[in-house]
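User: I'm writing a tutorial on reading structure tokens. Could you give me a worked example: one chain, its sequence, then its tokens, then a sentence or two explaining what the tokens reveal?
Assistant: Sure. Here is the example chain.
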Amino acid sequence: MSDPKSQPNKDLPANSPPGTEAARSLGELLAEAQAKLDEQRDAWLRALADAENARKRAQADIAQARKYAAERIVEDLLPVMDSLEAALGAAGAGPDALRAGVELTQRQLRQAFERAGVAEVNPGAGQRFDPHRHQAMAAVAADQEPNTVLAVLQKGYTLHDRVVRPALVTVAKAVENGAGNPISDSNLESN
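And here are its predicted structure tokens:
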């Protein structure tokens, strides 16, 4: 058997200089590597463009969602507006008819609020003051336990679990003993 390295390459001319076969192999390898590099670079650029397009689509979707976020609540409030306009247009209606119309409008508004996830914050008298849901407008000396609600001045509202407007309340405070320090516990037995 003969050595395959010693046999001349049939693709090369017979009078080629020595080492041409190796040079050609290196040239082919370089061309293949360059083709793979170009192919991978093209794939990378396409992936980059796809990611950029996905980001732009997501931004457009978010902008669209923000723009029309109130659409559902607006649809629920339109009947309320219609009822208010009808009440204003009923100039000859008596007080009972106007009251009935206003009560109907209030029910429609409450239903719209319920569908939107809006709930009242309306603490009862004697309920513990909650600074996260209530806003104390005054502290009044009362016989009730301190830090309890005495009266609601204005209802509050929440949207799902977030307070939109706290309830405005008056809060009971401890009756002060004129003879001593109201903060001190030393004169509790004297009352």
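What the tokens reveal: The helical segments are 20-67, 71-89, 95-116. Residues 1-6 have pLDDT under 50 and may be disordered.
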